[in-house]
Amino acid sequence: xxxxxNFNLPDDxxxxxxxxxxxxxxxxxxLEEQDDNIRFFDHRREDARTDWERGGLPTEDWEALLAEAKxxxxxxxxxxxxxxxxxxGQNGTNLGMAVIREHFATKGLGLHNDLQNEHSIVxxxxxxxxxxxxxxxxxxAEWVEDLLQGRKRFSFGISEPDHGSDAxxxxxxxxxxxDEWIINGEKTWNTGIHKASHDLIFARTSGKAGDGFGITCFxxxxxxxxxxxKEYLWxxxxxxxxxxxxxxxxxVPHSSILGEEGxxxxxxxxxxxxxxxxxxxxxxxxxxxxxxxxxSYAKIRKPFGKALATNQGIQFPLxxxxxxxxxxxxxxxxxxxxxDEYGAFSVSDKVSMCNYWANRLCCQAADQAMQVHGxxxxxxxxxxxxxxxxxxxxxxxxxxxxxxxRRVAGYMFGFMSQKAPKGVxxx
Length: 427
Description:
Elements: H1 11-33, H2 45-49, E1 50-51, E2 57-58, H3 60-75, H4 94-106, E3 113-114, E4 119-120, H5 126-134, H6 137-149, E5 154-157, E6 173-177, E7 180-191, E8 198-204, E9 215-221, E10 227-232, E11 242-253, H7 264-300, H8 312-342, H9 348-373, H10 375-378, H11 384-393, H12 401-412
Parallel strand pairs: 5-8
Antiparallel strand pairs: 1-2, 3-4, 6-7, 7-11, 8-9, 10-11
Helix pairs in contact: 1-3, 4-7, 4-8, 5-6, 5-7, 7-8, 7-9, 8-9, 9-11, 9-12
């Protein structure tokens, strides 16, 4: 048909996947296998990664290995892919990031891309992107390169013990006193604070509970007087770096505000869609890995004298999963492409669809792969239990699936608008 749409991925992106695969085989795979580093990815992984005597935090050698992989990826020019060229990036697209994240996750567990802690040789670099978009010139000069080199990092202090999905009812407050702000409150699920130099604390500075306006984000030094890590919250998948922190009369200068006073929620909202589409792509890739492994095993496993693959009871559940994977892949690619063409907020409904369905589908695929593999699938000698436990988390974090469905309903029934929030640029 004349003028028909071409659904092929861009040639440069397909070729780049080959470049990344070559880099993984030359640089990352040997690093993964030397000095028994494979212990972080085989049946010993949870013990190897977790310092049980230090509150369940990640072990130092595990995090050192991740840092070395990132260093090599940065040297090779891959780690900064989504960043502008002036910062050493490749002006990577949302479609490119989605395809890369799916491609990596389809390979299974490995040092190239570990989903449990968002590690990847092609970095998401959300902190850098936020700083470039909202930081003052002084903040950018002080932070950007240090963030990329790992000399500085900040956690995100958004969720609170009594307020998870509804950030507008935030109880943490900040009151101005001269050129300083005094912050009081508590935050939970403060991921990565054990290594972070600062915490991006969101606090109400004006307005009333339920207002979207009036919340400000502050770069708070994690060593500031009155800033205390109360505990690290143990989780389904260990190790944990998810902290419950308390702020008691913590003082920060006015210059510590990131973005505009009162518009803190827009700072995070700006990149929610980009994060969610990439996370959905990772869940899609992990689901495909589970199905691929189940199909391969069904071909060689021969109970009662014939391969499992000949049984429709094995075939049909995997066929249904593969069908959903194919449909979801098409929607993710379309949505990421539209984000690049029309802006991240133009497809908020589709991002939510991709996100909640991908996370649910991944859990279903991991569960079915366990069933096909029998007892072996339940063991830690296969990655399915790890994948299930990790991706079960994403049905809650990044906006619970019920929140994502509510967002879709809001757009369907006209309660919400697919426009950038006031003060947020789509550029």
